[in-house]
Automatic annotation (TrEMBL), chain A:
PANTHER family: VESICLE PROTEIN SORTING-ASSOCIATED. The keyword tRNA-binding does not apply. GO terms for biological process: intracellular protein transport; regulation of vesicle fusion; vesicle-mediated transport. It is found in: Endomembrane system. Belongs to the STXBP/unc-18/SEC1 family. Its main location: membrane. This is Vacuolar protein sorting 45. It comes from the Eukaryota. Keywords: Membrane, Protein transport, Transport. InterPro entries: Sec-1-like_dom1, Sec-1-like_dom3a, Sec1-like, Sec1-like_dom2, Sec1-like_sf. It comes from Eruca vesicaria subsp. sativa. One of its GO terms (cellular component) is bounding membrane of organelle. Signal peptide: none annotated. Pfam families: Sec1 (PF00995).
Automatic annotation (TrEMBL), chain B:
Belongs to the syntaxin family. GO terms for cellular component: Golgi membrane. PANTHER family: SYNTAXIN (PTHR19957), SYNTAXIN-16 (PTHR19957:SF83). Keywords: Coiled coil, Golgi apparatus, Membrane, Protein transport, Transmembrane, Transmembrane helix, Transport. This is t-SNARE coiled-coil homology domain-containing protein. Its main location: Golgi. The keyword Membrane applies. It is a single-pass type IV membrane protein. The chain crosses the membrane at residues 317-338. GO terms for biological process: protein transport. SMART domains: SynN, t_SNARE. The keyword Protein transport applies. It comes from Eruca vesicaria subsp. sativa (Garden rocket). Pfam families: SNARE.
């Protein structure tokens, strides 16, 4: 709740003080920030009658001086240039500039220089620089997410830009929450260490006045971790509603694009899945596929009853009642058809890709032991014709991550089989993954086989049996959260930045995962928050991953590394 | 949530830069390129970040943005919002009138009925007029201005829809309560006039009510008739006049009922029209980013349509006209020649 409400509050404040007809000008990143929390009808209520992008507005020549322009953009150099151009030929009556992050002095100077017509009324910083999709989950939607996997020497300026964007996003989050945290990071990740140190520098040195908030009894904790510590979660297939939609179809800014699936009515081609606006989705987003089916059936039955009662209209009162209830009826109808379409589509995909079979093996690889049996299962599925290339790749990757050190011969056999069967497979991708996220590189106990306690727990779980084979996997994040709750997060693995220290347990924890989060982890966080353990967790990442996106990042990083290696080889 | 106001710093920079820029413009309008170059080279060291305290009073020419007059459709939209405000105040009055009419009165409820009717009519008229004006707001042509118009239209349509729903709810609750009251018409504490008018009401409410209620009303009727018999003399005259008014109010209330039905129908029509304009909340159409993308694509489509229309118009009208005229010319020429030959 807290993330969505803070962004909404910022937007409310922006629009509230300015009276009259307004036009809201956004850039390509803030448009996601705004549209995920604010709807068009709410904008209309605030008298915002036009929404434009800052790129397209430079092109048009119409002068609309009866409108007041409210700019909400990121303070990047491109945006400042575009603003300069627009301020030199102002099209609107008034200009109110709101930036979503900290402005540098030079940027203010440039703007002041170009404001010859004195068209600018105010310049403010409103720190809504993140995309708040769910109550406790945010993302930064960064395009070149793969840069965290590349060592700094290869592309130092790219990595610097990446790190700057992340630091800006985290700073904006804490400014919106009005907190200054104690920072810890994952020791084994250079990128995480760099980001943690730069954030600490920003919050405690450069802008210490801005971050000087009222101290609460226990400071909140910012934990910066790396995706490569848990490469298993993005590779798994998901079976809970929100995660499944993202995995199979793709969820971007809470929107699902169904245009690739033919023959859908026009209003179902793009749908919105937001827990704020859709009560059914809110109660079902973390349920597994079977339960969703039943709940949807119940919803359809309810709807059919309402539809039937609307059919016999005999008297004037019935007519009046129908017209009264019509908007709700229409809304219900739209909602029902949206969920039915989604679930139908996902069932079709599950059927076509034989995901039940594949996912069972995946979950076994991720959770249970037995190298021999696992090898058998993976080989069978590789031989199976109807399993798609991407699923084969995932299976081999999961096997490799788990049994990296055991039986290298069989591992090589699997690699060869994969290369021979999948023509589009880029050779060496699995090896690249192992280099990035192999057993030596990982801090946490991913498979529960390092720590004696974890081994015992796994055995107990194996004996007890699981409720649902397909959802038995718990992301590593769950264990991390548990350690924090118990106050047992090891300093060796997750050191503090500088001389920070935390007494006791924090009450608010923000976990930032460099490289991206998944909806399974977001579900884990939401369920943990629901247990009211006294600690509130917020999860954020540079992007929201599904298996396709994660593999794309790996391929991109591999390509860059290869070209860098060949470049240095040539030069020596 | 934290914010930071940079306006002061911005204004400080702007003022200092303005006074730096002003001498430069003065010298530019002066002699020539030589001096211009000199002044620009001098200017850079002048561009320090410290504020210049002495401001040039006369030379600061504010290139102020001429705030032009807004386009005429803004007047239309303002008119509509004024009408909506008026309708809102009248609805408040209507609510009060409803409450007053529902209270048990000693007198005839006729003035209240009249007032209620007139208010309802006024409100429906205002809503209808606003709706017609709203249609006028629809713009043609893909321009940014048309998007603003469309959005203004949408927001006013939402308001109108809400108002009409409120009006219908008020009307239906009023009718329901009225009916309930008339059912309890056997309240013996009512005075004679009250009871007789109740009896009248009971009579023509037969048209609306079911069997069960009719028997209850009949019982009430009997009681009131008995009481009338007791006070025969006075009531003789009264019953005559009451019968007369009975007929009138019968027709009146049938009409009244018909009017209510009519206004319900009218409002249903308005709602249907408005629902085409109003955005459904929670759907994809309610998303800002979807609308921005759509605008881009519809602008392109609109441009294509415009070009096509221009082409057809050009090809259609003029060619036909020209050909008709040419043919006429030929005919006249032929006639002239024939006239010359044969005369």
């Amino acid at each position: 709740m807290v993330l969505v409400t803070s962004v909404r509050d910022y937007i409310n404040r922006m629009l509230h003080d300015i009276s009259g007809m307004k036009v809201l000008i956004l850039d390509s990143e803030t448009v996601s920030n705004v549209s995920i929390v604010y709807s068009q009808s709410e904008l209309l209520q605030k008298e915002v009658f036009l929404v434009e992008m800052i790129d397209s507005i430079s092109v048009s020549k119409e002068s609309m001086s009866h409108l007041k322009a409210v700019y909400f953009i990121r303070p990047t150099s491109e945006n400042i240039q575009k603003l300069r151009y627009q301020l030199s030929n102002p099209r609107f009556g008034e200009h109110h500039l709101f930036f979503s992050n900290l402005l540098k002095d030079t940027q203010i100077h440039i703007l002041a220089d170009s404001d010859e017509h004195e068209a600018v009324q105010q310049v403010q910083e409103f720190y809504a620089d993140f995309v708040a999709g769910d109550p406790y989950h945010f993302t930064l939607n960064m395009p070149s997410n793969h840069l965290y996997m590349i060592p700094a020497v290869v592309d130092p300026s790219g990595l610097q830009r990446y790190s700057d964007r992340v630091v800006d996003g985290i700073a904006a989050l804490f400014l919106a929450l009005k907190r200054r945290p104690v920072i810890r990071y994952q020791r084994t990740s250079d990128t995480a260490k760099r980001i943690a140190h730069e954030t600490a520098k920003l919050m405690y040195q450069h802008e210490t006045g801005l971050f000087d908030f009222r101290r609460t009894e226990s400071s909140p904790l910012l934990l910066v971790i790396d995706r490569r510590d848990d490469p298993v979660t993005p590779l798994l297939n998901q079976w809970t509603y929100q995660a499944m939609v993202h995995e199979l179809i793709g969820l971007q800014d809470n929107k699902v694009d169904l245009r690739a699936i033919g023959s859908l009515p026009k209003d179902q081609q793009e749908v919105v899945l937001s827990s704020e606006q859709d009560a059914f989705f809110k109660s079902n987003m973390y349920e597994n596929f079977g339960d969703i089916g039943m709940n949807i059936k119940r919803m359809v039955d309810d709807f059919q009853q309402v539809a039937k009662s609307n059919q016999n209209i005999q008297t004037v009162e019935d007519m009046a009642r129908f017209v009264d209830n019509y908007p709700e009826y229409k809304k219900m109808q739209g909602n029902v058809s949206k969920h039915v379409t989604l679930v139908t589509e996902m069932s079709k995909l599950v059927e076509a890709r034989k995901l039940m079979l594949v996912s069972q093996t995946e979950q076994d690889l991720a959770c249970n032991g037995g190298q021999g049996a696992a090898y058998e299962a993976v080989t069978n599925l590789l031989n199976n014709e109807s399993v798609s290339d991407i699923d084969r790749l995932r299976l081999v990757m999961l096997y490799a991550l788990r049994y990296e050190k055991e039986n290298p011969v069989q591992l090589m056999q699997l690699f060869n089989k994969l290369a021979s069967r999948s023509p589009k497979y880029k050779p060496g991708l699995v090896q690249f993954l192992l280099k990035q996220a192999g057993v030596e590189k990982r801090t946490g106990d991913l498979f529960g086989n390092r720590d004696l306690m974890n081994i015992a727990r796994n055995m107990a779980r194996g004996l007890k049996g699981v409720e649902n084979v397909y959802t038995q996997h718990q992301p590593l994040l769950f264990q991390t959260m548990e350690s924090i709750t118990r106050g047992r997060l090891r300093d060796v693995d997750y050191p503090f930045v500088g001389d920070h220290f935390q007494q006791g347990r924090p009450q608010e924890v923000v976990i930032f995962m460099v490289g991206g989060t998944t909806y399974e982890e977001s579900r884990s966080v939401a369920l943990q928050n629901a247990t009211n353990s006294g600690i509130r967790f917020i999860l954020g990442g540079t992007a929201v991953l599904n298996s396709k996106r994660f593999l794309m990042d790996l391929e991109e990083a591999q390509r860059i590394s290869r070209s860098a290696i060949s470049f240095t080889a040539i030069n020596h | 949530m934290a914010t930071r106001n940079r306006t002061l710093l911005f204004r400080k920079y702007r003022n200092s830069l303005r006074s730096v820029r002003a001498p430069m413009t003065e010298s530019k309008s002066g002699v020539g390129p030589v001096i211009e170059m000199a002044s620009t080279s001098l200017l850079h060291p002048k561009r320090s970040y410290t504020p210049i305290s002495t401001e040039d009073p006369g030379s600061s020419s504010k290139g102020a943005v001429t705030v032009g007059l807004p386009p005429d459709w803004v007047d239309v939209s303002e008119e509509i919002s004024v009408n909506i405000q008026r309708a809102k105040t009248k609805m408040a009055e209507l609510g009060k009138a409803h409450a007053k009419a529902l209270m048990p009165t000693f007198g005839d409820g006729k003035e209240d009925q009249h007032q209620i009717e007139s208010l309802t009519q006024e409100i429906t008229f205002l809503l209808r007029k606003s709706e017609k004006q709203l249609q006028r707001l629809s713009a043609g042509g893909p321009s940014e201005d048309s998007n603003v118009r469309k959005n203004v239209q949408r927001s006013l349509a939402t308001d109108l829809q809400q108002l009409s729903m409120e009006l219908r709810k008020k009307q239906s609750t009023y009718l329901k309560r009225l009916r309930l009251q008339k059912e309890d018409g056997g309240d013996l504490e009512m005075n004679l006039n009250g009871s007789s008018s109740r009896a009248e009401d009971d009579d023509f409410d037969d048209i609306l009510f079911s069997e069960h209620e009719m028997s209850k009303i009949k019982k009430n009727e009997e009681i009131s008739v008995e009481r009338e018999k007791e006070i025969q003399q006075v009531k003789c005259f009264a019953t005559l006049s009451s019968l007369h008014s009975n007929l009138l109010s019968l027709s009146h209330c049938v009409l009244c009922n018909l009017q209510v039905v009519e206004s319900v129908n009218e409002l249903a029509q308005i709602m249907k029209d408005l629902s085409a304009l109003v955005i459904d909340q929670g759907t994809i159409v309610d998303r800002i980013d979807y609308n921005i993308q759509n605008v881009a694509s519809t602008v392109e489509d609109g441009l294509k349509q415009l070009q096509k229309a221009e082409r057809t118009q050009r090809s259609g009208g003029m060619v036909k006209c020209a050909s008709v005229l040419v043919i006429l010319c030929f005919i006249m020429l032929v006639l002239l020649i024939l006239k010359e030959i044969f005369l």
